[in-house]
Every structure is written in C-alpha cells, then in structure tokens.
Design goal:
It is a single chain. The protein is an alpha/beta fold and about 350 residues long. The chain folds into two domains: about 160 residues, Response regulator (Rossmann fold, 3-Layer(aba) Sandwich), CATH 3.40.50; about 150 residues, Rossmann fold (3-Layer(aba) Sandwich). The protein contains 13 helices and twelve strands. The strands form three sheets. Strands 2-1-3-4-5-11 form a six-stranded parallel beta sheet, with helices on both faces. The chain has a four-stranded parallel beta sheet with strand order 7-6-8-9, with helices on both faces. A two-stranded antiparallel ribbon has the order 10-12. Helix 3 runs parallel beside helix 12, helix 4 runs parallel beside helix 5 and helix 9 runs parallel beside helix 10. The radius of gyration is 21 Å and the shape is elongated. Bound molecules: beta-D-glucopyranose.
Length: about 350
C-alpha cells in the first residue's frame, strides 16, 4: 500500500508548523488507495481550553496527512457525544478518535463502529468496558497526580517543616477514568504526611467519592470550597489545596478570595492543563502551579498511531499493563507531563510556543 509516511519521517511537528502546512497538503491521500481516509474526532467540551487545542491540533495534523476530518464537541453532554459518534459511524469514518465524557457510555456505539471495521483510539481518557477500543494515547496520568501532590510537599517543605498544615482535597469527575489516577498519584505523595499528622484535612473529606467534582466544573468546586470554609474553618487558614484541573483551581481561588483571603494568605493551589488564565494567575501569585500536558505532542502521537495502523504496522506504545478497561488491557502510549510554576512557565509554555506571550500580562 502506498501510504503517506511523511509525518513519520519528519517526526514531531508543532501546532504552528502543522497549521502552515495543513491547507497545502489537504488534498493528499490519507489512505493511499485513491480515496482519502476519513477520521471522526469526538471531543468533550469547548468550555476548557485544552480540548479546543486538542481538537485544532488533531484536525491540522490529520489534514496534513491527507485525511478528511470531522471534528465535534459535545458540550460535556453524554447523550450528545453518543449521538455525534453515531453520526460519525453512519458517515463511514475509517478512524474514530474519542475523548470520552463518560467512560462507560460508548459501548453500544463503538460496537456499531467495529461492525464496519473502524479503528478506535481512546484519546486522553480511557473508554471502559468494551473490546472495541484499539489503542490509547494519553499522558502518564498517575504521574500528573504525583506532580500535583509532590508540588504541595515541596512548597510546604513537609520534609523539614514542623506543621501541622491544613489541606483540602479536590478531584475530577468520577466518570472520567483519569480521575482516580490523578488522585491516587497525588495521595501517594500526601498520605504519609496526613498519617503522621503534619497535614490535616480539616473538613475530614478524604475519600474520592467525597472530593470528586462532577464534569470538572469550576463552579461546583467553588460551591464545595465555600461550604468547607464556612463549616470547618473559623480563624484557621487553609495552607494547601489539591486541585486537579485549572478550571477547578480558579473556582477554589474565587471561593478563598470571596472569604477574604489576601494574596499573601492564599494557600498553595495546584492545577492542570496550563490554561492561559491559570498561567496569568501564577504570574499574579494567585495559583501556585499547574501541570502542562503538550496537546501538540498528543495529537502527533495519535496521528502516528493511526498512520502505523493504516500501514499495517504496530503503533509505538510504551505501556501494555496499566490501562485495563475491564475487558482488556488497552495498549497505550503515555507522554510525560511537566510541572509548571512561576520559575519555569516562561521556558515551558511560552518559549515552547504553547502560549503566546501577548496573551499574558507579565
Ligand atoms: C484530562 C485533563 C483535564 C480534565 C478536565 C481530564 O481527562 O486528562 O487534562 O484537565 O480532563 O477537562
């Protein structure tokens, strides 16, 4: 088969380079058999920046390889995503790239996809309870949590400081398979200090079920933080908050500021995704850190997987043990997340071209 291998030969390309070449190459043949291969991309929501970047990067990278692309966002509504994927299946997409809203809602529609031999890639979030997912492209989700929890350990100098310090815990949406990996990674860092009493969860809310945030919604997190502050904190202050995602971090910070915390009094607050608004919060000293996951790399990894499969080759993976979806262990490619704070944001997210300096007030 005469498959377009330019992408593999040139290796990783940044979003800007992809964007420049996308239109010039849009007519190339993704399948090499005379007809462009069709790829359907299902993303969860446009309310969070990262998914917009993921969708844009994937679309550009697939078009660069000559694929015909359908990209849909589901406004974080499970039923909408299911029906969008149903439509993609009825359109005869050769490949589906899916970042699921609910990790168990897609089994029916993916079974339909498999009847017509569609290749299914779980993108960033694993799809559970089905044999009909071929590969998983993501970041090392446990390591994301390690970076978040580890940031708090270092920032409070828990090794040496006497404490005790007050901490509150937040996690993501329970229907997202990543949530438990982030939380477990973080708690493996924090639990030893909670056990020895150096860290105190004043609210007593430590179970994943109690600390989860449905749909990763910042307003939901803000309301929970309001409740924690009014119920459990009098003159005492919160010293650290484990927050799994920047939108949640900003909700928590809004709650703290609403309760009268000054800039100097704000606790250590973690995050994830290096959203522009949160990088600005980091510059302004309101949020302490975030975890950067380069969605340009994830798009390239996904396209490389698809090209290998179309070419009849085994895609490159680096984990064939961790991601058991209940039916099978899905072969995975895990990319490295990077912790970002005031010390390295310039190098990691600005100099790398991920965020334009002009969108920040530095
Ligand atoms: C992603 C995170 C993101 C979160 C909320 C997770 O599945 O891995 O990067 O912060 O969803 O959108």
């Amino acid at each position: 088969m005469n498959v377009n291998r330019r992408h593999l030969l040139t290796g990783s390309v940044g979003a800007a380079a992809v964007a420049l070449t996308a239109s010039a190459c849009a007519s190339e043949d993704g399948g090499g058999d005379g007809e462009a291969k069709k790829v359907g991309i299902a993303m969860p929501t446009k309310t969070s920046e990262r998914w917009i970047a993921d969708g844009d990067n994937l679309k550009a990278a697939f078009q660069d390889e000559g694929y015909e692309v359908t990209l849909q966002y589901a406004n974080d509504e499970v039923d909408t995503q299911v029906s969008q994927i149903e439509t993609m299946v009825s359109q005869g997409q050769d490949i589906l790239v899916v970042a699921a809203i609910n990790n168990e809602a897609l089994n029916g529609v993916l079974a339909q996809a498999k009847e017509q031999d569609t290749t299914v890639i779980a993108y960033d979030r694993l799809i559970l309870g089905t044999d009909d997912v071929d590969y998983y492209a993501t970041f090392d989700n446990y390591q994301v949590g390690v970076l978040q929890g580890g940031y708090i350990v270092t920032a409070l100098d828990l090794e040496n400081a006497e404490g005790p310090f007050n901490i509150e815990l937040f996690a993501g949406s329970l229907d997202d398979n990543n949530t438990k990996y982030f939380f477990n990674g973080a708690m493996d860092q924090l639990n030893p200090y909670i056990d020895e009493g150096k860290l105190v969860v004043v609210s007593g809310q430590t179970d994943l079920q109690q600390v989860a945030t449905e749909r990763w919604d910042g307003a939901t997190a803000q309301a929970r933080m309001d409740d924690i502050l009014s119920t459990h904190y009098g003159s005492e202050k919160v010293d650290a908050v484990l927050a799994p995602y920047d939108g949640i971090s900003r909700g928590i910070i809004a709650s703290l500021e609403g309760a009268g915390y000054t800039l100097e009094e704000l606790p250590v607050v973690t995050g994830q995704d290096a959203e522009v608004e949160s990088i600005q919060y980091i510059i302004d000293g309101r949020q302490s850190a975030t975890v950067f996951k380069d969605t340009r790399q994830l798009a390239d990894t996904t396209v490389d997987m698809v090209i290998a499969l179309v070419n009849g080759e085994e895609p490159e993976v680096n984990d064939t043990e961790t991601y058991d979806n209940g039916v099978k262990v899905v072969p995975s490619m895990l990319l490295d997340p990077v912790s970002v704070d005031i010390e390295n944001y310039q190098e990691i997210v600005v100099d790398s071209g991920y965020i334009d300096a002009s969108s920040l007030d530095q």
